[in-house]
Amino acid sequence: MTRDFININDFTILVEEAVSAKVITDACKFDEPVIAVAFYGSGNVDLSVNYPNKKKQLQYTKGLALSFYADESVEFVHTVSAQKPLRCVLIATSIKNLDKLPNDEGEIFTSLLVELVNPSDHYVEGPSFLMTPEMEHIMDTVFNMKYEGKTKMMFFRSQMTTLLSHFFGQLAAGQTKNINTTEREKLYLAKDILLHNLENPPSLSELSRKIGLNTYSLKKNFKDLFGTPVFKYLQNERLKTAHDLISNHKATVQEAAWQVGYDSLGSFSNAFEKKFGYRPSQIK
Question: If one looks up domain 2-172 in CATH, what number appears?
Answer without folding.
Answer: 2.60.120.10
